[in-house]
């Protein structure tokens, strides 16, 4: 279908700013720009409680932000890994999304500020996210959470980390996870898909951007073949938690996200793949300006709520 009109307006406004391409700038400059944008952004929706704290990680303390909804608990828990290509973004960039998920799904959300590349290259990010998931399982009662109802989720790079962490938990004897939420995930650094050819320019996330993220995150070409970087390349996708995968019609990552869903289904994993036509990569964070994105957040929250109730 045609590009969503509100999304087109956003893209036109971005083009009119004539800003330099992300791939032409160093990470610290982009991070500074993002911080300036956040400082002037509207506040997210209210939740009952927000707490910043640090938890032990494999290379030091990992900052987390814990969102608790209204109610008495203990609540189910979503361990959330933010997007940003493993290089940019942080707890603040995804604050609004986490607030919406906490309220909409009726769960505690633990947002994880894992180590970023290029300062900390692969596999620092999955190691931190795995450690955070273990911590939540062991300390759920401390945050008014239910250790028997833990899910993991994230967007883009965070969707990749979600897929990776569920495989790590399965293979390393970690805690039982009841669900995984992957929002337009990257799943295969080796793929040459139709969606990359069709949507690699002009729709927010470009192929040049993806190469820039990859170059900062991975150590070598060999890392592309590691399932901890490319979870689609894992030989066995069985015995993983039920999944919801969101994709966008005009996203270069669309096809590899949907292929991961197909592979999960073939392996006997219950999975919903929900494509949002007319939308672009990053839409989940556009709920304030794109009606279809707001609907996606609401539908995702409801699916997550139902998954917790069924577990």
Domain count, please report it.
Answer: 1
Structural category is alpha/beta
The CATH topology is given as Rossmann fold
Tell me which CATH architecture applies here: 3-Layer(aba) Sandwich
| Helix and strand pattern | HHEEEHEHEHEHHEHEH
Arrangement of strands in the largest sheet:
1-2-4-3-5-6-7-8
Helix content: 25-40%
Query: Taking Cα atoms only, what radius of gyration do you get, to the nearest Å?
Result: 18 Å
Kindly, what is the distance between the CA atoms of the first and last residues, rounded to a whole number of angstroms? 36 Å
Shape: globular
Q: Mind explaining what this structure looks like?
A:
The chain is an alpha/beta fold. It has one domain (5-310): Rossmann fold (3-Layer(aba) Sandwich), CATH 3.40.50. It is built from nine helices and eight strands. The chain has helices spanning 5-17, 27-39, 95-105, 124-139, 157-171, 194-199, 207-217, 254-266, 291-310, and strands spanning 49-57, 60-68, 75-81, 108-112, 145-155, 179-183, 243-250, 271-280. An eight-stranded mixed β-sheet has the order 1-2-4-3-5-6-7-8, sandwiched between helices. β5, α5 (157-171) and β6 form a beta-alpha-beta unit. The longest helix has 20 residues, at 291-310. The radius of gyration is 18 Å and the shape is globular. The termini are far apart. The model has no long low-confidence stretch (mean pLDDT 97).
């Amino acid at each position: 279908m045609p590009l969503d009109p509100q999304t087109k307006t956003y893209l036109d406004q971005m083009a009119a700013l004539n800003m330099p391409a992300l791939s032409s700038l160093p990470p610290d400059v982009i991070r500074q720009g993002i911080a300036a944008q956040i400082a002037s952004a509207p506040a997210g929706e209210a939740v009952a409680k927000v707490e910043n704290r640090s938890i032990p990680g494999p290379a030091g303390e990992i900052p987390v932000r814990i969102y608790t909804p209204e109610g008495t608990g203990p609540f189910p828990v979503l361990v959330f890994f933010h997007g940003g290509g493993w290089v940019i973004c942080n707890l603040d960039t995804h604050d609004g999304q986490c607030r919406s998920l906490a309220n909409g799904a009726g769960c505690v959300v633990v947002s994880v500020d894992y180590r970023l590349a290029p300062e900390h290259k692969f596999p620092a990010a999955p190691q931190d996210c795995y450690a955070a998931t273990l911590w939540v399982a062991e300390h759920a009662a401390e945050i008014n959470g239910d250790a028997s109802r833990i899910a993991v989720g994230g967007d883009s790079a965070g969707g990749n980390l979600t897929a990776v962490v569920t495989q790590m938990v399965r293979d390393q004897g970690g805690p039982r996870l009841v669900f995984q939420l992957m929002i337009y995930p990257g799943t295969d650094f080796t793929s040459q898909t139709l969606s990359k050819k069709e949507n690699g320019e002009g729709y927010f996330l470009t192929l040049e951007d993806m190469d820039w993220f990859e170059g900062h995150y991975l150590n070598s070409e060999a890392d592309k073949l590691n399932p901890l970087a490319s979870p689609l390349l894992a030989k066995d996708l069985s015995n993983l938690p039920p999944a919801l995968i969101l994709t966008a019609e005009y996203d270069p990552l669309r096809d590899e996200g949907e292929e991961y869903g197909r592979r999960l289904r073939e392996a006997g994993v219950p999975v919903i793949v929900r494509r949002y036509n007319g939308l672009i990569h990053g839409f989940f964070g556009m709920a304030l300006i794109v009606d279809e994105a707001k609907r996606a957040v609401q539908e995702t929250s409801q699916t997550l709520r139902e998954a917790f109730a069924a577990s």
